[in-house]
Amino acid sequence: MSSVDRPVIQLVGVGKTYDMGEVKAEVLHGIDFSVDRGEFVAIVGASGSGKSTLLQIMGLLDRPTKGKVLINGIDSSKMSDDELADMRGRNIGFVFQFFNLYPTLSARGNVELPMMIQGMPSGERTRRAREILRSVGLSDKEENMPSQLSGGQKQRVSIARALAMEPALILADEPTGNLDSKTGQEVIDMIARLGKGGNRTILVITHDRHIAEHAERIVEIKDGRVISDRKNKNRRVVER
Ligand SMILES: Nc1ncnc2c1ncn2[C@@H]1O[C@H](COP(=O)(O)OP(=O)(O)O)[C@@H](O)[C@H]1O
Ligand SMILES: [Mg+2]
Predict the structure, then answer these.
(1) For the chain, what are the domain ranges?
(2) pLDDT at residue number 235
């Protein structure tokens, strides 16, 4: 079987308990679901339901305390931390609510960083960073520092950074949570376009029903469990 036949990501009985000494908080309870190549999935649920914890685990930023996560059919529980970091760097792009840009690097420097970590030569990564920044409409802001960018521009830089290694999987945690509604809409449209017609898989955690409207599939989490997983029949499709 080739990797194309397998789900991009598969969670099998994933549980997570945070151990805070005296107190243990069981945050995820036996989560099973898988995402196919090219799918655009929204994960919705109330604050505190475990969405960010789930995204950290799917993104190999944290390990489950029960169950396992398969990426392209490969069991991540058997991998070392270094192997996980490498797998993550090559296959997964992240977009966060608070952007998580390096304040001391320019927009271009932030986009180049993941490529630098993967050992891409400097000329190639600069050329590529410029090209991606152009594709998100930020050619004129390349040399700006994050503090010299608006919220929407920062999020576009972070989308550009997520795209740097051409990852098969993009994970976004409340990407519009810190933006006004107009800017948020632009960012949503950009994320929705990323998934169009390609092999790229997109998972977005959101409170924002406009984002959920764009997704092909909506997974609802409540108290650390999947309570519904359905196709989005009323999907809004963005045109290029
Ligand atoms: N690192 C952590 N240590 C202890 N508890 C945590 C940690 N991260 C999250 N939690 C708890 O796990 C629960 C789920 O949090 P989270 O995954 O952030 O939910 P959501 O993203 O849906 O708001 C919350 O009760 C939160 O307080
Ligand atoms: Mg969260």
Answers:
(1) 3-231
(2) 81
- Residue 46 Cα to ligand 2 middle (Å): 9
Average of per-residue pLDDT values in the chain: 91
Ligand 1 centroid distance, CA of 63 (Å): 14
What is the percent of the chain where pLDDT is above 70? 96
Chain segment 142-189, per-residue pLDDT in tens: 999 999 999 999 999 999 999 999 998 999 999 999 999 899 988 988
- The hierarchical CATH code for the domain 3-231 is 3.40.50.300
pTM of the model: 0.92
CA 5 to chain centre: 22
Q: Which residues line ligand 1 (CB under 6 A)?
A: 18, 20, 25, 27, 45, 47-53
What is the band of 239 on the pLDDT scale with cuts at 50, 70, 90? low
212: CB partners within 8 A, 6+ apart: 42, 44, 206, 218, 232
